[in-house]
UniProtKB/TrEMBL annotation:
Sites where the protein binds substrate: K229
Signal sequence region: 1-25
InterPro entries on file: Beta-lactam/transpept-like, Peniciliin-bd_prot_C_sf, Peptidase_S11, Peptidase_S11_C, Peptidase_S11_C_sf, Peptidase_S11_N
UniProt keyword list: Carboxypeptidase, Cell shape, Cell wall biogenesis/degradation, Hydrolase, Peptidoglycan synthesis, Protease, Signal
Domain Peptidase S11 D-Ala-D-Ala carboxypeptidase A C-terminal: 280-365
Function: Removes C-terminal D-alanyl residues from sugar-peptide cell wall precursors.
Protein's UniProt name: serine-type D-Ala-D-Ala carboxypeptidase
Amino acid sequence: MTGCLCRIVLSIMMVILGIAATCAAAEAGEESLTLSARAAVLIDGHTGLVLYGYNATRPLPPASTTKVLTGILGLELGSISEPVHVDSRSAGIEGTTIYLQGGDVYRLCDLIKGALISSGNDSASAIAIHLAGDEKKFSALMNYKAQTLGCLASRFGNPHGLPQMGHLTTSYDLAVITRYSMQNGLFRSIVGTRSGRIRERSKGEVMPLYNTNRLLGHEEMGWRITGVKTGTTSEAGQCLIAAAEKNDQILISVVLGSSDRYADTLRVLEYGIKNCHLVLVRRREPLRDVPVWRGSRMTVAVAPEKDISLLIPPRLLPFLEKRIYLEPYLKAPCARGRKVGRMEILLGNKVLFQTDLVTLNNVPRG
């Protein structure tokens, strides 16, 4: 890009759908929902902004929603096709299992499926022991990963979510971890799978898997539930992380300590869908003209290289800002699709989205 950049701050005039800059701000201004959950949060899966929060930063036991972090670490730290020899420490673990036995051999990816689809505690344990040597060392990796994602209120003590002193996280932290994890295509595919099968490699036995998330595939006001993870213990109550998608939009909700996680989740999602607005800027939609020096035309139109679509609560619209950084003029010849600047959408000082600005036409020398 040549020449100095001109910064132009423009007011945003668009149509919209929702979120808040911080949990505190969200909870201070949110409409009260009737929930049985001890904590809940709703975020935009693209920007991470909080659309709704109730006790969103309160540390609580997460039960098997823990396995979201276990699953993404398994995908990132191991090779999905590598063989895993199940340790006897993982076999026979309490709670939900897929009935692993010591000495079984599975592909790492299959154990990740067992943990995320059927919520197998033995699968999560086997992943941890395979990758780190024992659950304690793997938990250290979990905590490190959580901290790198900004989840400073979380402390994970095991890979499966069984009750343990100090094993706590928040609904907001789980939403952040899930948002990150859903950017991994294989993770996203696994948590969106209703049923499947995995095969033990040494004996050839086939184990069916059935997703524990009863909302998977549910349609709510045009949005479809595409994941992600349940969790239940007597201490944690009913927990659910859910992802809802429509076109290129994604909402991520978390409810913890619920007595009816499915009803609570649908209420939270419905709130976001009804009360927030969709900010939309189409790619290739002209924003302004830039002067062209010595060209066959005096100006050329520029537009965003990518579509911009954001979810925003109505109360935050006055604080939304669009900034354009653009070259003051271009020299001919100028090719169609040339990058000549960028556009940012901000809420306060937080950049929600940015994209390059490109020329829409060829301009030869005049």
